[in-house]
Amino acid sequence: MNTYNQEHLMTDNNSRLSIAVLGTGLIGAAVARNLAHKGFQVRAWNRSAEKAQRLAIDGVQPFDNPADAVRDAAIVLTVLKDGQAVIDAMTAALPGLRRGAIWLQLSTVGGEAIDTLAGFAADNGIVLYDSPVQGTRQPAEQGKLTILASGPDNGRDTAQSVFDAIGQRTIWVSDKPGASSRLKLALNAFVFALTHGTAETLAIAGALGIDPALVIEAITGGPLDSGYFQGKAAAILKGDYATSFSVENGVKDARLVVEALAGTDIRADLVEAGLARFQRVVAAGHGEMDIAASFLAGA
Are the C-beta atoms of residues 19 and 43 closer than 8 Å to each other? Predict the structure, then answer.
């Protein structure tokens, strides 16, 4: 593996790090904007080109293909749907990738895929930081993501400078990629339990002839209360399913949890039930809505 230092990572014409963001969906676009606003040189690519092009107004330079986007970039961020999308983008980017570049992999890809990506990085002289994020659209827009980071000590300061621009907290999990992606699966299981629990509780109240608003009133200020509960419950009562974390992505991530536990002595009963609930929501035509649409799962 090539060694590198801070000077190597600077651009030729100024002192700002050049960063390529591959994937400019809900999270990726917010990440790219925050990096540009913090003074980084930001280049971007997205499979749907217009999404990257919209970022030009924020000082982000859009490109039509991954190889051009990463060319001469010191750091590459991937913020894509799943492991296959990440490996496809990085394979396409390979002709433009600088050997020794730092790769911050922010997508939720699961345990098997992150191991594949780590092998790809090692084979091509890229320094991988497994760094999925905790948080959805609003925290991403506010630069308040939590980053779960795993990767080598050498280069960590540079990675941290990027994490500081997009998040409010970084948890360093391990010095080797893989641990962060596995921690993200466990945390997503908790997110799904909270989401489905909130949605189902409000639905039960309504089915029993009770105003669901009374559920919120009873929980508010007590030991069961949380900001997450308040946000999802309020959205459900308003019928506001604007997407921060889509049901379709919920299906993908719940499957990753179930698949990761294959061969262990643990069965994720709540995740499996929640996956079935998400699948009913998708079948009803609501897959692009926020996961609060668990409320719409019906029978």
Answer: yes
Same domain, yes or no: 212 and 164:
no
* Among the listed residues 122, 75, 66, the one whose alpha carbon sits nearest the alpha carbon of residue 101: 75
**Alpha carbon of residue 119 to chain centroid:** 21
Considering the entire predicted model, what is its pTM? Answer: 0.92
Give per-residue pLDDT as tens, 28-42.
999 999 999 999 999
Write the CB contacts of 24 (distance below 8 Å, at least 6 apart in sequence): 32, 44, 45, 46, 51, 52, 55, 79
The structure tokens 């379709």 sit at: 248
171 lies in the same domain as 214: no
Task: Report CA torsion sign: 211, 216, 222, 224.
Answer: positive
Note whether 170 and 190 are same-domain residues. Answer: no
Out of 177, 192, 215, pick the residue that ends a domain.
177
Amino acid at 114: I
Strand 145-150 vs strand 75-78: parallel, antiparallel, or unpaired? Answer: unpaired
Q: Give how far the C-alpha of residue 185 lies from the chain's centroid of Cα atoms, to the nearest Å.
A: 11
Question: How does pLDDT run across 127-161, given as a tens digit for each residue?
Answer: 999 999 999 999 999 999 999 999 999 999 999 99
CATH number at residue 22: 3.40.50.720
The domain tally of the chain equals 2
